[in-house]
Design a protein that fits this description.
160 residues; mainly alpha; 2 strands; extended; nucleic acid binding; DNA/RNA_pol_sf; RNaseH-like_sf
């Protein structure tokens, strides 16, 4: 993932700076480290926990909307205690390998147009992250694009 080497902010405390940072982080994801001009860490561990909880809340609205304030606080504490096992970016596991068995006589289907562009972009991200590896097989598990409330698409893969 590409991040700018430096983003000059001077001493301005304008709301537009925050909006630009949010827009940039939305586009490229959160960097592992943010530095001030002096080169010292800008974002405390507490802030990372808060951002992680906010991200988890966004991802799991149905779960967190049913939590009582005390339960939400307990969840924040749990995330804070186990920050080392959470990641905003998807990763790869070596714990299990998966093989997709194909039934004889089943035909390959293809995708074209705009959905294909979305699929190719997501596959490219997963290849770059090492989550998946290239295959020369014509077969793959079915991909379904599910519309999200914000108008973007969720990439779903049916591994049956």
């Amino acid at each position: 993932m590409w991040y700018p080497e430096a983003l000059p902010l001077c001493t301005t405390t304008s709301k537009t700076i925050a909006q630009e940072l949010v827009q940039m982080f939305t586009w490229v994801g959160l960097p592992k480290k943010i530095l001030m001009d002096q080169g010292t860490p800008f974002m405390s561990r507490l802030m990372r926990v808060e951002w992680m909880v906010e991200w988890m809340v966004e991802q799991g609205q149905s779960l967190t909307s049913k939590l009582m304030p005390q339960q939400l606080q307990q969840m924040k504490e749990l995330v804070k205690q186990h920050m080392d096992v959470f990641s905003v970016q998807p990763g790869c596991t070596t714990v299990i390998q998966h093989h997709i068995g194909m039934a004889p006589g089943v035909k390959v289907y293809s995708t074209s147009g705009y959905p294909l562009l979305i699929i190719r972009a997501e596959v490219e991200k997963m290849l770059d992250s090492g989550i998946i590896e290239e295959s020369s097989s014509a077969w793959l598990s079915p991909i379904v694009l599910v519309p999200k409330p914000d108008g973007s698409w969720m990439f779903c893969n049916g591994l049956r």
